[in-house]
Design brief:
globular, 10 helices, 5-stranded mixed β-sheet, 5 strands, Nucleotidyltransferase, domain 5, 48% helix, alpha/beta, 221 residues
């Protein structure tokens, strides 16, 4: 059997473009936030790979050259500032510094060694001050990342996916919009560029993989 392999965020972006929040647009960017941050680009209705196949590494745009160290070895990447891993780092640092938070208690109660999207959602529901502060900062940096992407590619739509977006939906994405719109270079019809949470959740990748497989099978005859 022929086998097709692609990046998980690429297939997630294709899924959202074909069936989800990016349906019926020609230009779209997907940003997926989890333990890291990845991105996918749709140009003229097709997945864009770039010259070497590495287009869409949105998580490694540098927003603060003196910022925290990223897993890639550089400093101040979006991933190092706004991923779930970065948020857990900041929550733990705040607790170590003496701030009160329910996050570690929830993690212990659920027998989790890592701060999952469910733990984040529960801490926010309990109005945990540390979690709210860390989330607000992450949303700000993601808003900047969206603005940079729009200034570079001018897509019709930016879709935010991943576990946190699936859990929190509009509550997660809405605070990113003011920051993003504020930093658009071209303010003309800024609101026409929709910044939306993904609609497909975990199904985005599987559905996108099917779309890509069918397209490549058709192209090969």
């Amino acid at each position: 059997m022929p086998i097709i392999i692609d990046n998980d965020v690429n297939v997630g972006t294709v899924g959202e473009h074909a069936f989800g929040a990016g349906k019926q647009v020609q230009e779209m960017v997907g940003i997926f936030v989890g333990t890291g941050i990845g991105g996918g680009i749709i140009l003229h209705g097709e997945l864009y790979y770039g010259h070497r196949g590495s287009a869409g590494e949105i998580g490694h745009m540098v927003l603060d050259a003196n910022g925290p160290r990223c897993g890639c070895g550089r400093r101040g990447c979006v991933e190092a500032l706004a991923s779930r891993t970065a948020m857990e780092r900041d929550v733990r640092a705040a607790i170590k510094a003496g701030r009160k938070s329910v996050v570690l208690e929830i993690m212990k109660e659920r027998n989790r060694k890592r701060m999952t999207s469910g733990i984040i959602a529960r801490a926010l529901k309990q109005r945990d001050p540390v979690m709210r502060e860390v989330m607000k900062r992450a949303q700000y940096y993601l808003g900047l990342a969206v603005a940079n992407v729009v200034n570079l590619l001018d897509p019709e739509r930016v879709v935010i996916g991943g576990g946190i977006a699936e859990r929190l939906g509009e509550d997660y994405v809405a605070p990113m919009r003011p920051t993003a719109y504020q930093h658009f270079l071209n303010p003309n019809k800024a609101q026409s560029i929709k910044i939306l949470p993904g609609r497909l959740g975990d199904n985005a990748g599987a559905m996108g993989a099917v779309v890509l497989a069918r397209r490549k099978a058709a192209a090969s005859g």
